[in-house]
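3.2 Worked example (two chains)
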Amino acid sequence: MNIENRIEDADLATMPETSDLLQNTLQCLAPFHAKLTELDEAIETIAEVGDRTAGKGARKLQRQLRKVEPSITMIGQVKAGKTSLVNAMVGWPDLLPADVNPWTSVVTSLHVSSKMQTSGNSASFSFFEAEEWERLLERGGRIGELAGRAGADEELEKLAVQLDEMRAKSKARLGDKFEMLLGQEHKYGYVDQELVERYVCLGDTFDADLDPTSKQGRFADITKSADLYLKREEFPLDMCIRDTPGVNDTFMMREQITIRAIRESRICVVVLSAHQALTTVDLALIRLIANLPSREVLIFVNRIDELADPAQQIPEIHDSILETLAEHHGPEDAQIIFGSAYWANHVVRNDGTPQSDASLSALKNWAGAQGHEDEAKINGENHELVWELSGVPELYKALADRIESGIGGEAINRAAKGAMNLVSGITTSEHIVADRPVNSTLEPLDHAAIPTELDKIEERAVQQLDEKFTDITKEFFTRLERSHKGFLDRATGSLIRHLEEHGEKTVWQYDATGLRVLLRTAFQVYSRNAQALNQELFLQTAAEIREVYLRAFNVPEDQFQLEAPPAPYVPSPVLLGQTIALDLKGGLWSRWWHRRRGYRNFAVEFADLIKAETDPIVTGLKGEHARQVVEDSQEALKEFVAGQREMLASLTEQAETTASDLMNAGKTADNREKTLALAATTETLTRFAA
C-alpha cells in the first residue's frame, strides 16, 4: 500500500478545552485504570529483580497491558444523532459531521488518550482497494449482486444510473488522481473539523456543478476508514469509539464494513431516535445485535429533548423496545439508556447559546420525572443537571462496568497469570542458586534433555488441539449444513403451500429469523466446545511443563505453580446479521415475485436464489469464523510454550553456574529485599489472576 504522509502543524485553536463535567464523569473508568497501574507496577518489580529472561518477559507483558484500548462500536438509525453523541462523548461537539448522506460516510475510529506527547492529535484516512471499488462500480456492491440473482432488471438499471453519476462526480473531484488514490492512505499531524469533512463528509448539497476547488467531501466517495488520534486530558483510560455509517446504504457496502467494526469490538452501543425507536425499518439493526451477548450490547435512546412529554413517553418507548427485541429474537436483558446528545453538546460547548423552548420544556419535564423537585427553576445554564439528564454519564458508567467485566478484566487476568509464571521462574532460579536438596519421587531430568522434552510436549499438544478441533469443527459443519438444508426445505414447502392456497397474485413473504437462530445456536455450541477444549488442553500442557521444572531443577512441588493461559475469546458471528433477499420487503422482492410464472418456476428459482444468498453466510461461519478460533487457539498455545522455553533455557544456564560465581557477580545481593518484593508482587498478582 502506498502511504502518503501529510504532516502539518496542529491547530490548537480548534481543540476544545478540558471539560470538567466530562472529566468527572470519566472517573468511573478510574478504578479499572488503577488496576492497570497497580498490575503494571507489580510487573515492573519482576523486571527489576528478575534476570534477563524474566525482565524480557515482564517488558512484553507491560507492552501488552499498556496497549489495552477497549473499543466501542456505535451503530444506529440514520438521523438518530449517533455522531452527535460520539462528539459529546469525546468532548468535541463539532468534530465529526453529523448531517451527511449515510452512504457517503465511513467508519471513523476515535482513539482518545491523555498520554500523548505535545498536542498528540493526528489522523489517518484509508481508501478503498481497487478491487473493492471495482466490485461497487461493476456489480453495484451487495445489492447489485442480490438484484442480479433475483433477475431484477429494473433495479439494476437504477443502480447503473446511480453508479455512473457517482463515477462522474468522483472523477470530476479527483481528476487524474482518481485511480492512483485507491488503496492509499493519507496521514496528518493534526485534526480539525475541516480535515474530517474532506474525507468523511459529502453532505446533502453536493451536485455536479459544485465548485470543483472546494475541499469539502473531496475524498468522501473512496474513503473506507478514518482513524483520529485525540489527546483528551479527561480520559484516564485509552479508549476507541467507532462511529459507523449504519447498515442501510444504497449498495450495502457499509453494512459489510459495519459488521467488521462490530466484530472487532466487544461493546456495541445501538443509538435509536426516541421518535422511531426500533420501528420495522430497523430490523437490520436487530439482526446485527441479535448475534451479540446481551452484556456486550447497550441501547441509547437519543433525542428525548424532542419529546413533548418525556415522563410519559419514555416508559412506553422502553417497553416497546423490549417487546420488539423479544419478538425478533434480539438480545435479552439489554440495558436501555435514555438521553439527549443535544443537551450534552450544549453543555460541553458552553457558548451561551440558549436552548429552544421545546427542548427546555422537555428538560424540565424529564428532570421532574427523575426526582428533581425544583424543575420549574431548571434552565439551560444548570449545566450539572443538564449533563446528568443527557444520559452521557449513565452511558459511561455502563461502559466502565462492561470494560472491567469483559475485555479489560480479561486483559488483566491474562497479564497477571503470565507474570505469576515469571515469578515462578525467579523462585526456581533462587532455588538453583541456594542448591537446596529436595526429596522428590519424580524421575530426574537431565538439563540437556529439556529442549527435547518441550518439543514433545508442544508437538503432542498441537496434535491434540488439531485433532480435537477437527472433531468439533466437523460436528459444527454438520449442524450448519443440516440447519441450512432444513431451512431451505421448509421455506420452499411454505412457498408451495402459499401458491396452492393463494395463487401467484399474492406476494409471499418468509422470515429468515429461523435460519439465523439455528445457525447462531450451532455457532454457540461450537464456541462453548472450543472454549472447553482450550481450557482442558492448556491446563494439561501447563501441568506437563510444570513437571519438567520439578524434574529438571528439583523444585519443591508445594512451592511451584504454573498458570495455564486463558482460553482466547471467540468473536460473535455478526455475519449472521447480513441482509439477504428474504429481508427485503420492498420493490425488489415484489418484482421478483411478479416475474415468475408457474409453480415449478417459483419453487426452483426461489430455492436457487435463497441458497445463493445464504451460502456465503454458511461459508463465512465455516471459513473465516471457525478458522479464526483455531488460529487463535494455536497461537495462544505456542506463545505459552515459547515463553516457558525461554525461562527453562535461562534456568539451565544458571544451573551450570556455581553459587559462588553468582555471588561474586553480585547476582544474589539483597536477597532478603528481593524475596520480600516478590512476596508482595505475588500477592498482587494472585488477586488479579483469580
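3.2.1 Second chain
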Amino acid sequence: MEPIGFSDIQSLARQESSRLHHYFIGVEHLFIALTKLRGGLTAAVLEEHGLSPRFVRHSIREIIEPYQDPRYWVGFPETPRTVRVLEMAQSYAGHNTPSERDLLMAILDEGDSVVIRVLAEMDVDLVGLRETAASLPNVGQVSVPEVPILGQVELTPDQRHVLQQMFRSYGQVQTVRELTGGYSGARILLVRPVRDDGRHDAAVVVKLDDRDSVLYERRRYDLHVKDRLPPKTARLVDFPTAPDGSAIGGLKYTFVGRLEDSEPVNLREYASHRSVGELHRLIREVFEFFGPNWWLQREQYRFGVWREYEHVLPPALVIDVLADVRPDPEGHVLEPFKSWSRLPEVMPGEIVTLSGLTVQKLHPEQGRMQLAAGSQSRSEAVNRCSKVEVRGLDLSTRRHFRGEVVEALVGRVILTRDDLLMRSVQDLEPQFSPFMKLIPSRHPALEDLPNPLLHVSELLERQIQGFLSTIHGDLHLGNILVGPNGDAWLIDFGWTREGHTLFDWAMLETSLLVEIGSRRMEPGWDGVWNLIALIEAINRGDDRVLHEDHPAVPVLSVVWTVRQIVQECLAQPDRWDEYFIALALIALRVLDWQSETIDGRRLAFLIAALAMKEAQKPFRTDGGDWPDLTQTDLRTGL
C-alpha cells in the first residue's frame, strides 16, 4: 500500500467541508479526513480503544451541523485553530512533510477543538489515545477474527460480521433467541458471549440495524438516557459497532442483575402468560421508575400538533426525481416547515423544487431517499417534519449522507400523504368507502364515526397546551423487556428526545390494543366493531365495561391503567383532547405496520376514528376519576 500523503488528507478535508457547506477547513474536517483513510493509523488507534471511526465521524457531524447559508468566499480558508494544529504537525515532522501520525498527534496535543470535546463527551481516555497514537505501528486495517457464532438464529453475512467484531475478544458467541416485536426492520437478539476458557458471561441484548440508525440511537442515548435513568435498567455498553464497508451496525444492551436473571422477554411475550394484576403492576412500575427522570421532568409547552406528530405519518409527498430539469425559481419551491407538508397544496403531476431539506434516510439499492426538515430545534420531532420520499435516484454516481442539506432537487409529484393513507385503508378490505365523511357504525351502541383520513390536515393545524419532557419516543410492547424477577427495562432509544409527554402513552395504548387486543376478539370487521364499542365505554370512564364477558376485557383493564397515568400527565385535567389527538395520529401510524395482522390494522384505523371523535369534544363532561384497579379481582390471564 502506498503511503498516504498530506495532500490526500487535505483533499479529503476539503471534500468533507464542502459536503457540510462549510467551505473552510477546521480541525474537525481534518480529523474526519484522518478517520476515512483506508488502512490508516487513525482508524487503527480508534479501534484499538473500542471506537468505531464511523461513530466518531457521526458524532462530530452532529455537533458541527451542515450550514445552509450561501458561500461568500472562494477557496477553503483555514481557521486559526487549524493553522496552529498544522504548525504543531510541521514541528513534529521537522524538515519532512507532516505524516498522518504527526497530524493526529497535533490534534490530540492542541487539546481544545471540537474533536477533543466530542471524544471527552464519550468518556474516551485521551491520554491513552495519545499514547497509542505515538506507539502503534503503521498497520493496515484491523482484521476481525472469525469468532464462531452458534445457535439457531439465521443471520446474514453482514450481521455475522458485525457480531464477530462486536465480540472479537471472546472465544465464541451463542445466539440464544430472537426477541420479536420491532417494526423498524431492526433485529433484536439475546446473545450470550463465551470466553476463551469456556466461561459464560451474562447474556446481553444486541440490536442490529442499518448503520445510520445505530449511530443515531447511540447519540440519542448519550443525550437523553445516559446518567439519567435509575441503575436498575438496560444500559448501552461499549460504542456502536459499525464496520466500514458494511451497511449495518450493532448496539449492545446489558442489564444490572444476577447472571441467571439476565435473560429477558419483551412485554408482549410476558403478557401471554401473566395475570392482569401483574400487568397493572408492571405498567405502573415503568411510570414510577422512569417517570421522575423522564415524564415528570416537564415544563409547560404550547405547540402546533404538526411539530410533534407530523413525523409519525407517511411522507407528505412522494416524487420522482427529474435529473435533467433545472430548478424553476418561479415554480413551486418546497422549503422546510411550510404549510405544503400538512395542507393539500400540492397535487400529483406537479413539478416541484425541494430546497433546503435534509437527508434523513438512504436506500441506495432501491434508488430512493427520505428528506425532512432537519433543523436542530430543541423539540427534535420537528426535525422530521416536511417529510418527502424521493425515488428514481442514481445513487451510484452521487453519494449522499445522512444529515446532508440538499440545496435543490427537482421532481414530479406522484403521490401525496392522502394517497398513501387511502391506499393503506383500501388494503384493509373495508366494508365502507374510505372517501366517506362518516364511517357507518356496525354496532348498535355506537354512532357513525368521523373518517380520520379527512381530518388529518385539520388535526395537524390544531394548537395544544401540554407538557414537554424527555420521552422514549417508541414505547411499544417490543421495547419493554421484563426479567425473570419481573423488573421492567426499556430498550431502543433511537427516537428518544424532548417531546410531548403524552406521546409515549398514546403509543403504549395503541400497542396494547393492536398487538394483544386484536388477537382476543373474533376475526373480521364485526370483531373490530365489538371491541371498539368497549373502548368507547373506556373513553367515557365507565368501568362497568371491565366486567363484560369479552376475551379482550383484560387488555382493556390494562388500558385503564394507562389512562390513569395519562390523567396524571395532562396539562389541564379536563382537557382530554390533548390525549385523543395524540392517540388518533399514532393509531394512523400503525396502518403501515405490515408485520401486524389485517385485523390489528383494522382496529388501529377505528381507534383513530374513535379518538378523532373524542378530539372534537375537548372537555370531558361525563366526569369522574380513573379509579385504581390494581387491587381489584382481575386475575384473568392475557
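3.3 Remarks
The chain has four domains: 6-135, 149-263, 308-422, 427-449+502-632.
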